[in-house]
Amino acid sequence: MDMQTIEQLQKLLNRPLALRGREAGNRLWLAPMAGLGHVAFREVVDGFGGCGLLFSEMCTARGLDTENRHTSPTFRWRDQESGRLVVQISGADPREMALAAERVAREGLFGVDVNMGCSATALTKRGAGAALLREPERAAAVVRAVRQAVDRVDPAMPVLVKFRTGWSPDPGPAVEMAAVLAEAGADALVFHPRVAPDRRTRPPVWEHIRLVAGAASVPVFGNGNVQTPEDCLRMLESTGCAGVSVGRMAVARPWLFASWSSGREFGPQVYREAALQLLDALELHFDSQRAVQRYRKFAVYLAANFCYGHSLLPGLIKGNSLEDFRHTARTLLQDGLKTGTRPSVHLFTR
Asked: Average pLDDT in the 317-329 region?
């Protein structure tokens, strides 16, 4: 990017955003991701810096009010991140969602996010996630219950909602849903412009972000296929969204928040460093079995950066322990490996 473009991007990103009684430090956020946005990964992102808000991975609302943050695989965090952490909860029952939101509020975290974007069958068959977009009245009831529950504990805590276009390509229902969610008590929306059944097989329709942002009475963050700083600037300028939420690209390159928001440059060694940092964080926060599983998920996105990532991946995940993975990371992630501007679609979307 030329210097003028970099300066324009930083000008748009590095604006604080007031959300109810809290303030996000900038307009570049981590997206909530099931199985990927766990506490160890967030520690790596936080180490590089530049992320305005961190989001937890998806936490099931049922039983969350009694969950132990030190043993739960999803509802856990570092004290150092609590003031910038939004916990995403999923469910279809307003009462269960209210109990979960109240627990989040009692912990003094930044905010709570309602999942209306995940289209995994295991979730939608229970009426949760993107299934709520089929029932605007229930969606509103869920957000209203969450808002009321949070108000009982911490009225300053913002409520956010991540949602999709819906179950058909027509953006009209999404525009209407944005108004419904804001009226029910959402303080900000993160919008992913894909239909619910689409698992990233087609590109997101950024024009729908513009329509939703233009119609909503609360800030709308865009999400979907933002892989380069040029993409980020184009989304901001073409849609008028309040900011950008980055998901799987952040897994591939956890340092992008620092790079895009401050202009920091990172050399080829950063891929190896990120892998080793994650392995250390996984060892700290999870038992060995969970740590191995989570690293293997991460390695797919790491390998996607490289021009021959499909050949590199089997070697990266060879072994059955974190020490095995440390050895392969040091051995295989050499500085001379050729990387692409964008990750490989074949690996990145699998």
From this structure: 97
* Helix axis angle, 288-303 to 322-332, nearest 10°: 20
In the chain, % helix, strand, coil (3-state, to 5) comes to: 50, 15, 35
* 104 and 243 share one domain: yes
Range of the domain at 333: 270-348
Instruction: Give yes or no: residues 225 and 281 share one domain.
Output: no
**H-assigned helices in 216-255:** 229-239, 248-252
Q: Which of 118, 232, 241, 307 is catalytic?
A: 118
**Count of structural domains within the chain:** 2
Place of tokens 């709520």: 132
Q: What is the pLDDT of residues 3-61, one digit of tens each?
A: 888 899 999 999 999 999 999 999 999 999 999 999 999 999 999 999 999 999 999 99
Question: Are 180 and 231 part of one and the same domain?
Answer: yes
Give first-to-last CA distance, the chain, whole Å: 29
Question: Do you know the residue count of the chain?
Answer: 350
- How large is the average pLDDT for residues 187-208? 89
Contact by Cβ (8 Å): 210, 200: no
Mean pLDDT of 111-139: 95
For residue 197, name the pLDDT band (cuts at 50, 70, 90).
confident
- Helices 206-215 and 229-239, axial angle in degrees (round to 10): 40
Do residues 29 and 52 make contact, with C-beta atoms less than 8 angstroms apart? yes
Active site residue 118: yes
Same domain, 220 and 297: no
Structure tokens at 53: 């808000």
Tokens of 43: 């520690």
Report the distance separating Cα 329 and Cα 79, nearest Å. 29
DSSP H/E element including 245: strand 243-246
Q: In this predicted structure, what is the pLDDT of residue 350? A: 44
Residues 6+ apart with CB under 8 A from 350: 300
Domain co-membership, 71 together with 211: yes
Tell me: the pLDDT tens digits for 163-173?
A: 999 999 999 99
Rounded to an integer, the average pLDDT of 253-264 is 96
Cβ atoms < 10 Å from Cβ of 202: 10
The reported pLDDT for the residue numbered 200 is 67
295 with 228, same domain: the answer is no
